[in-house]
Amino acid sequence: MAQFTFDMRMDKASYAMIAFMLATMMYFVIHGAGAGLGFVGYLQVFLISLFSTIALVGLACIPVIIGCYFIKKIPDIDYAVWIAFGMTIVGIISELF
């Protein structure tokens, strides 16, 4: 039986992907909110974007753990970030068309 551990170290590219996802979420929430946001509104936008990015990466962890279990590979948080980034790109493309 293979030992199953979870590695929490990330590549620099994963940090850039997370920053891009956070900025994308903030852009679309601000775009949908319209004009007239004050400081509290921007704080709420940041928090909503932060929580939605964390939730997106967390949801992407589920197929990564299942897939890595079947192929007997140690799961890495980078895989979940890549999947979440891909889902964000698909969301951007679907929003543009």
Q: Spell out the helices and strands N to C.
A: HHH
Which segments are poorly predicted (pLDDT under 50) over 5 or more consecutive residues? Answer: none
Strand content: under 5%
Number of strands: 0
- Percent in helix: over 70%
Can you give the mean pLDDT? 88
Structural class: mainly alpha
* Rg over CA atoms: 16 Å
From the N-terminal CA to the C-terminal CA, the straight-line distance is: 47 Å
Q: Sum up the overall morphology in one term.
A: elongated
Explain the layout of strands and helices.
Blueprint: H1 12-33, H2 39-70, H3 77-96
Write up this protein.
This protein is mostly helical. Helix content is 76%, strand content 0%. It has 3 helices and no strands. The radius of gyration is 16 Å and the shape is elongated. The model has no long low-confidence stretch (mean pLDDT 88).
List keywords for this structure.
97 residues, mainly alpha, 3 helices, 76% helix, elongated
